[in-house]
Amino acid sequence: MSQRVAIGSDHAGFEYKTYLIKKLKKRGLQVMDMGTDGDQSVDYPDFAHPVATKVANKEVNFGVLVCGSGNGVCITANKHEGVRAALCWTVEVAKVVRMHNDANIICMPARFVSKITAGKMLDAFIETKFEGGRHQNRIDKITC
User: Fold this and answer.
1) How many CB atoms lie within 10 A of CB 9?
2) For 30-84, what is each residue's pLDDT tens digit?
3) What is the pTM of this model?
4) Of residues 49, 80, 100, 135, which has the active-site annotation?
5) Is 51 contained in some domain?
6) If we measure between CA atoms, which residue out of 48, 43, 8 comes closest to residue 24?
7) pLDDT digits (tens, 9 = 90+) for 105-144
8) What's the structural domain count of the chain?
9) Maximum distance among all alpha carbons in the chain?
10) Domain residues for 65?
């Protein structure tokens, strides 16, 4: 069975979301597009919450969120229990958040990385496995 992913963005991330959906589908993943559907100004929580809900409910294997800074969607997603959303700006960061934090949502800043970098970060996030061990002990302490 192929992996399922939920993806969402605000207006600043719409172009990137469209690009990343094509990459995800090319990899054979099932994509749930949670919006937005254009570059008109919208509120990022309206799209981050549905993605985070899908991840928290284990309806998808992971999530992808994009906004201007990446921070708004990241903060919003992390309000959901069981979500470990991580703001990434390099391929190396995307790898580490998977290896050490078992991140299940990657958040990207459309205004601060190129589409090519965003695509490479997504690839690294998908391909990198959680190391477990001492990192699992730390993750177990996250939930309040």
Assistant:
1) 32
2) 999 999 999 999 999 999 999 999 999 999 999 999 999 999 999 999 999 999 9
3) 0.97
4) 100
5) yes
6) 8
7) 999 999 999 999 999 999 999 999 999 999 999 999 998 8
8) 1
9) 45
10) 4-139
| 100 catalytic residue (yes or no) | yes
In a domain, residue 114? The reply is yes
Helices 115-127, 91-99: inter-axial angle, 10-degree rounding: 20
pLDDT averaged over every residue in the chain: 97
Q: Which helix (H) or strand (E) holds 66?
A: strand 62-67
CATH assignment at residue 54? 3.40.1400.10
Burial level of 40, CB count in 10 A (0-12/13-18/19+)? exposed
Span 78-87, pLDDT tens digits: 999 999 999 9
User: Looking at the domain assignment, is residue 42 inside a domain?
Assistant: yes
Backbone angles phi, psi at 5, to 5 degrees: -135, 140
Q: Is residue 144 part of a domain?
A: no
pLDDT at 1 over 70: no
